[in-house]
């Protein structure tokens, strides 16, 4: 009976575990439904009244939740770094530019870190249902305007544009800062500012910065000097976000010319994509193919454990293949077109048999040595597995606490 060494058994166990975990993750991903209209409004309610440049920056950065947490931690530890010094410091950080931009607005970055589950879901919705998500923002703005809670003032300029689309008129509400160099972050309870919240099962959360003492249904933080840090834009009529290349190049010290924003999966880390199509678009398909290759190796290892006779047959075949290779090499050395004599053929056949015999002898010796070593350690040969390995969750969860704010349902 062939006895595999302990290292081989561990390797096979790991391969089986990876295969089972990958299959479980793939099944869960393929069965995940899209976000409903109620869920999209719940996700966007806390930020729908933010100025368009800040809103677009939040949506981009939400697709990189791990880096959001890292950046929020950096800002807490470097609270005095602002203005030009902040721009200098961001050139040394490895984060996505959309995450770097939010270091200029620490209140918003802290909210995204505190509400990490919400941030990840917002990013998933933005990548998988971008048009529907932006439509939810517009629906909420229309309701806030109707309730009298969205108006132009010293902090923001609210404008409404109506166009004929498909035989009917469509209105878009845009919110811009009154001064592009400064930003005021609105603070409001989304369960109040849009009128009566209609979805009891999907209530949004209410978050406000630590120590905030504003008044009114919609209040504002103090002016934040952002310079060129916030470079995002929203193209409402095309349902997408864009880049102000001049501001982007100034803050990031680059020289891009394309104003289109594209998600960069390199900054996603180990956070899985919720939607199957999004995962295929941004690289999970390649990782799935790699897991399938590992799964094939695991299946082969399990067959060898269940059927040691087959494993020995495979070893014999490898030994015979080695003998034949040496024989072919000897024939090549005799010269092309010169058939060997009868005596030479007999010698070659004997050499091939000796090679096979020696290979079998060496293999048997290795098996006996391994078995003796394992028995000394109290090792019992592993039987065929009766069930598959089951893995738990992924890496460590990152949760940061900060700020104030009431807690709504998630």
**Spatial sequence of strands, sheet with the most strands:** 1-2
* Poorly predicted regions: 1-28, 373-403, 406-410
Q: How many discrete domains? A: 2
Q: How many angstroms separate the termini?
A: 58 Å
Overall form: elongated
Global mean pLDDT: 78
Helix and strand run: HHHHHHHHHEEEEEEEEHHHHH
Q: Tell me the strand percentage band.
A: 5-15%
Number of strands: 8
Rg (C-alpha, Å): 32 Å
Helix content: 40-55%
Please, could you describe this protein's structure?
- This protein has helices at 6-30, 37-44, 52-61, 65-77, 83-90, 97-101, 106-114, 116-128, 130-146, 245-252, 276-281, 284-306, 308-334, 342-376; strands spanning 156-165, 168-177, 182-183, 186-188, 218-220, 224-225, 232-235, 240-243.
- Helix 8 (116-128) crosses helix 9 (130-146), helix 12 (284-306) crosses helix 13 and helix 13 packs antiparallel against helix 14 (342-376).
- The chain has 2 domains: 33-274, no CATH class; 307-379, no CATH class.
- The protein is 50% helix and 9% strand.
- The chain has a two-stranded antiparallel sheet with strand order 1-2. The chain has a two-stranded antiparallel ribbon with strand order 3-6.
- It has 14 helices and 8 strands.
- The model is unreliable at 1-28, 373-403 and 406-410 (pLDDT under 50).
- The protein has 410 residues and is mainly alpha-helical.
